Structures are given as structure tokens and as C-alpha cells.
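Summary for the steering committee. One of the milestones for this cycle was to obtain a three-dimensional model of the protein with zinc ion bound, which we needed before selecting residues for the alanine scan. The sequence and ligand used are listed below.
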Amino acid sequence: MPVILAIESSCDETSCALSRDGVILSNIIANQTIHEQYGGVVPELASRAHMQNIVPVVDAALKKAGCELSEVDAIAFTHAPGLIGALLVGSQFAKSLAFSLDLPLISVHHMQAHVLANLIPRHTNGVQEPLPSFPFLCLTVSGGHTQIVRCESPLRMQVIGETLDDAAGEAFDKSAKLLGLPYPGGPLIDRYAREADATRFPFPEPQIPGLNFSFSGVKTAILYFLQEQTAKDPGFIEKNLARLCASIQDRIVSILLNKLKKAAAQTGIRDLCIAGGVSANSGLRKAFQEKGRELNWKVFIPPFEYCTDNAAMIAITAHYKFLAGDFADLSVSASARPSA
Ligand code: KG4
Ligand code: ZN
């Protein structure tokens, strides 16, 4: 029954979603293009753009959902982790709204929300698609994080592996920068990789023990390889762009899936999910499905709009928190750190 209005503002997307009984009624996302010219997200500009976007985005989400504010049962927002100025815009807005409407407030952890994007009900031809069964494993891959999470229930999860250095999204974006592509380079690598033939440049797979990841070695290998090749032929990158993108993408994907395979074998869990911005990558989605067929996993992939930052994932997490009576009070503050 609960109608939830959820806000996400942790990085450079301002988003608002409405859900009723865990079903997403609307999910409006305003992207901030201002950062492109700087080659990365500029925190202060992100905060300012959130301030400009938040009221129209909330209005549009209410309108699309066909909801009035008077029908809303709780206000949810991302409290951590992210850019502090960006988080403060969403959290102050959410707190003010909850206070003025005398509604309960729900604070949501961004990484937990990425995982729970897999629990958003979906329908194909009117039939609800199956959801993952607990316990499941989720490979959460975003611009700031790379984790394997073991989920016992919607609100009980544990990180069993994570990156020791760069996140998978950073590995995509930094590699793209080495190729001279604009920020964010992940989607561009994905696009060019589709045009490549089958031959690949050999970038190494790091040997990291356990379930942790490392991407800094691959990045260095790419840098040295490009320096060596462009010294011989300044047009090397341009001539080989598609093949370079495919080689980088294949290596990042294989690092991710080999660890996920190890985690599945160690835990005996067969319901596997992916989440986060990098789970929008077509190479990862395809390879994950193939691995699933090969190893007899049940695989779950959120639709694109629930992979990159969005408020629908905040709404579904808040839905479960509402059912559990897990509310925040007005003293709750935003935090840049993941441990908050
Ligand atoms: O989850 P997200 O939207 O924001 C964070 O919480 O960080 O993830 C953003 C990351 C960026 O690094 C972006 O380049 C990457 O996700 N990304 C992709 C693709 N779409 C987004 N990386 C590779 N292929 C894509 N199609
Ligand atoms: Zn994210």
C-alpha cells in the first residue's frame, strides 16, 4: 500500500521516483551535461545543478505517476555515499518536504539501493518476471564502487569482495580518457567495442587473492601499451579504436565475471544479479548471461534505467524499510563515506 516519494542526488543525476506498494509509478532522471567539458564531475557544479533540477524533477515525477503530494506516505532519500554537496541538496529537500507534510522520512544507502534495483517488479506482456530468490549474490559495479554482495533478505546484505583500488566504472572512464574519449567514457567504450572484429590486444588479468578486485594494473598496462604503439605510429589509437575498446571491455568484464564465478562456487549460491552503472555495459550483460547458461546460474539484470543512478532503486529500498518500520528522524545527515 505505501506510496513513497524517493529522491536520489548522490552524484550527477537528479532523480525522483514514486512507488506504490513497491511498484514504480514514475522515475524521472535529469542528467547534468555541464561536466562533460571538464572531463569529470565537478562537485560544486553538481550541487548547483541539483538545486536547479530538484523542484522540476519532483514535479515531473508526481505528474507522471498521477499522484498528489497528499497521497504520499513517506519521503525517502539517498543519505550516503556520494558527493557531500550533492547529497545535501537531496537530503535537505527530502527532510523539508517530510517536515512540512508531517510524513515519515526514510534514509537509503546508495549501494544497497543499487543491489535492490534487482527487486523492482517487472512485467512482460502483463506477466510478472521472476525475482531473485534469497540468498543471492550481486555484482555491484559503478563509478565509485565494485563489490560482490551476499544478500540474505532485502535489508540484510554483506560485502564479500570489493576493489582494492579503482572501481570498474573508473577503469572504463580512465581507459577511455587514455584513448582521448570524453567523460564519461564507459558508454563510449561500449559503443565502439561493438564495431570491433574478433582480434584483441592482450591486456593482463591481475592475480588478486580471494574475492577482491584490482584494476590499476590493467590501467597501467593500457597506458604503457598506448605509449609504445603511438611512439611508432601516432595514428595508432584512431586506426584501432574499436579493437582497443573491445580489448579493454573484454578484460574488465572477464576480471569481474571470474571473481563472481569464484564467489558463486565458494558460497554455493546460484541466483546471481548485477547492478550499478557498469551493469548497463552490453558486453558485461551478454557475458553474464552466457556464464549463467554455462554454469547453470539464474541470472538477473535490471533494465538500463535502473542500472545507472536513479530514484526508483531508492524507492524500492525505502519500500522494504517502510515495511520494516525503519524510519529516520530529522537529525539524520548526509555522508560522503560508504560506512555511514
Ligand atoms: O552507478 P552509476 O550511474 O554512478 C555511480 O554510483 O558511480 O555509475 C556510473 C559509471 C560511470 O563510470 C560510467 O562510465 C559507467 O557507470 N557506465 C558504463 C556504461 N554506462 C555507464 N560503463 C561501461 N559501459 C556502459 N554502457
Ligand atoms: Zn550509483
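Key point for the committee: The two ends are 29 Å apart (CA to CA).
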